[in-house]
Amino acid sequence: MDLQAVKRRYNIIGNSEKLNHALSTAIRVANTDLTVLIQGESGVGKEVFSKLIHQLSPRKHNDFIAINCAAIPAGTINSELFGHEKGAFTGATNERRGYFETVNGGTIFLDEVGEMPLDTQAYLLRVLENGEFIRVGSSKVKKTDVRIIAATNVDLKDKVKEKKFREDLYYRLSTVPIYIPPLRERPEDIIILFKKFARDIAEKYNSPTIKLDDEAQILIRNYNWPGNIRELKNVVEKLSVLSDDRLITAEKLIEIVPDIRNRNLPVSFDKNSAEKINDRDLIYKFLFDMKKDISELKTLFYDIVSANDLDLPSIRNIDHDAMKDHLPINDFENKLDEFENKLEVNIPKERSIVVPKTHENENYEVEILDDNLNLEEMEKQMIVKALKKHNGKRRAAAKDLGVSERTLYRKLNEYKIGL
Ligand SMILES: Nc1ncnc2c1ncn2[C@@H]1O[C@H](COP(=O)(O)OP(=O)(O)O)[C@@H](O)[C@H]1O
Ligand SMILES: [Mg+2]
């Protein structure tokens, strides 16, 4: 079965290169009896992959069982896996078959295999090497045919160094390693996963599907997702239930999921210290405050324009498309001049501007008076200075002044500067 068909059949979402690579390896190895070691952070889909490998294997009609090695007490794990004889230990009133007996012919998924006790590791190695095991309290060797898929969210090599994991077992398990990348390494998958979960939940509760606005999408894509797909699923569920609005804005998202501001920064910066997180929070707060300030300024600006009856050309008359198009550079500068001219607000000279009351507690006036003239005078002086400095060379003077040659030319005419 090809990659896309497997995705469709097993509801695997994502199309990043890294995910596709992991999935192709899983498909290729499924057909064999080889031991597979799936590595990846919590919530990336290790269990999903293990089931898929079993389903695509010749063992698919036999049992599949998932065992979390970290969740079973060290005292009972051997008995759970290999079984025990009656009277093997206090409380063993009956004999019991372990998973290696009951799942014979099937697949055992050993999750968090790095947490397995050392003695159990020795018994597991024996099963992997020749299919042999012994029940606890017995001396009789039994045979089993079980395929092992192991998973870990820690680096087993570190465990080997710490002498908490057998090196020989590590090599035996990692015959075929599969690495499932965390979401932050495949941001292109995040939005499609979000959409898929949003649709699923809408269907489940028979309600309209939630959507993210552009800013919310940026936050979702840049979050570090420590809990990966499991966490993303929870976030979608939370938003679907807690938001009245079906269009989720950045503000709403932060309100419902405050953690979303923890950005996925390059690893070298991401030391996760409280200080760093604070910095990120501050930057975000700053950006949002700035956005608010800008919209308040816009409102104030339009209020001032209308309160003073100022002559402002309608923005709609400006040819935005012409501005955006890839114009030759000269033509672009012409357009820019035109644009600037159109934007000039025609403020009657020697008049004061009234700031509408709604924006301040007290009504205050801004004196303009001769400021315009002063500015013009200053500009004129700057131009003369620049031209002198560059011996009358307009190109150099314009560059120094930070304007185009054309603008300088226009100003020279305007101020009647003859040089
Ligand atoms: N590629 C994927 N597409 C859709 N859902 C996924 C995908 N990978 C994982 N999931 C879902 O994410 C959750 C966590 O997956 P799981 O396999 O339990 O992760 P892990 O075992 O790595 O902690 C599950 O609900 C699973 O169905
Ligand atoms: Mg898991």
Task: Provide mean pLDDT, rounded.
Answer: 84
- Strand content is 5-15%
Q: Helical content, roughly? A: 40-55%
Classified in CATH, the superfamily of the largest domain is: P-loop containing nucleotide triphosphate hydrolases
Oligomeric state of this protein: single chain
CATH architecture of the largest domain: 3-Layer(aba) Sandwich
Report the end-to-end length measured between terminal Cα atoms: 80 Å
Radius of gyration: 35 Å
Give the CATH level 1 class of the largest domain: Alpha Beta
How many strand elements? 13
Q: Decide which structural class fits the backbone.
A: alpha/beta
Shape: elongated
Domain module tally: 3
Order of neighbouring strands in the sheet with most strands = 2-5-8-1-9
Largest sheet: 5 strands, parallel
